[in-house]
Amino acid sequence: MTNRRNPAPPTATLDINCDCKEYVVDYLTKSFPVRLMAVFTDENGNARSEPMSDENGAPVLCRSALAARDGMIEQLCALPPIATALDAIIERFGVDQVAEVTGRTRRLIVGHDGRQVLQSRSPRANVAETRDFMDGTKRILVFSDAGGTGRSYHADLTAKNQMRRVHFLLEPGWRADAAIQGLGRTNRTNQASAPLFRPVTTDVRGERRFISTIARRLDSLGALTRGQRQTGGQNLFDPADNLESTYAKEALHRWFGLLFAGKLEAVTLSRFEELSGLRVEGPDGAMVDDLPTIQRWLNRILALPIALQNGIFDEFLGLVEARIDAARQAGTLDIGVETIAVEHFEVLTDTLLRTDALSGATTHLLELEIARALKPLRLERLEELYGFSGARKQLLRNTRSGRIGLLVPARSLLTDEGMRVARFELVRPLKHGHITADQLAESNWETADPTEFQRLWQAEVDDAASNHKRERLHLATGLLLPVWDKLPSDYVRVSRISARDGRSLLGREVPLHCVPELCQALGLEDEHVFSAEQIVDAVLGTGRPMQIKSREALTLKRSLVNGSQRLELAGWSASRLDWYKAHGCFTEIIRYQTRLFVPTTNAVAVLARLAGQI
Fold first, then answer.
1. Per the confidence metrics, is the pTM higher than 0.70?
2. Alpha-carbon span 543 to 559, nearest angstrom
3. Coil, strand or helix: which one is 345?
4. Which residue range or ranges hold the Strawberry notch helicase C domain (predicted)?
């Protein structure tokens, strides 16, 4: 079999395929194991093997291995050529739309007549291509490591092209520092807008190993910038992408426990040890204490067959995401600094919490009202991202609120006992989140008609496009280190409020129910007067009880009664029971005890009357 290409006559049409078959065929020819091996037992009783040779010293080859190698090469050469990502992009959009900044001196392009043309590129071609992109003449830029050195492609305020960059990361490779350097080319100071980063991977789960390395390096870079994690990562990756985080290490330890107990579906203990070469079970039949590190485990997983690799990663990521979801719900997930882009904000109150005796630096608690422009997901974009057809996709409408949503299958979570928790992604016009199968069964979501679904979705988009979302929040700003231990430990979120007029505030968010505790811990009088609407939203949203300033020391809390969440009052006087009922409360005897509830339908009005606000 020959792999030589004869040069085409000068007058013939070029038909050149720039693929990597030659390298793969050469690798198979030289490295495919075709030699017979002799198995023997050494002095310690271990089975070993060595290459066989005949009486003349020539290697003995295996006929079946030779046939397998030749058949594989034949099938490989019969496959249609696969273009590289760079050539495919240029062929799809054309050289008039794509600026190429790489180290190539020649390239094959398709001319206007549809024929291949071999084009030479001078060293100054990169300069011209960069200028075309920054001027907006070409809308797409493709650059490599060689083309990214010493150049910037961000939406500079002095450039003609100030459109927001969408940076796709292709083939990140093993070098995380090179990938990070490339990401920094589109994110600079003096830019009109920050870029959107989009890492691209295939359905091979092992590729997450490379993305994880970049995510870990970005987190480490952010840790060097005084805890401002976003400086390094720019929220490019989800916490689940870092497979070397604390959550991932805890999940791997539990994965080994489930593997040892035989509770995993993807692989058994014996097969995993045979294929990976890692030891989980010791000579005494117990699990070894010195389990493999996550870096070593990830590297061994990459050598497994694709189907097995994907199955193992699915179960492992189910454990990781279960831990991250639990930390996110508890408010302890550290994602660094989160930038909240708002139209404008207004400082309602400014409470001085502390003044440093040496430096004079102050710590403040600000009550802000922010207005955010709603950015709904358009119906066309929804269909482009998810599509409406599919065996497991459902068009839903909430019979209680009238809202609609698209239900999309998501990765199942895995509990520490090895039980799978079926989960779905619920996509709505203004937000999306996850919902378990049990939560879906207990909710008010029902199947919707496709025509009605599209009409209601478009109605929500039109309504949201013309409105702003107004909300209030409390932000601790200034010198925070001396009062860091006084801030709520179960809610860690550092935010930068950035307005369109250039104003910004940086601090740590304080939930509404934690404001009285913070003031009390610092020896201050709580002068904040919360509205009934704020109290109701805080109690229903967080489940934390809150005090109501009234004639009596009333506490509003959230209680689960008969499968539904209710607002319950505590601390009320039995002698004034009729007075509470006259102001809108209702009672119910549960286990021979009278309990007082506030109706959720008009809770704001009832609480306002109880507090004497109306």
1. no
2. 8
3. strand
4. 85-339
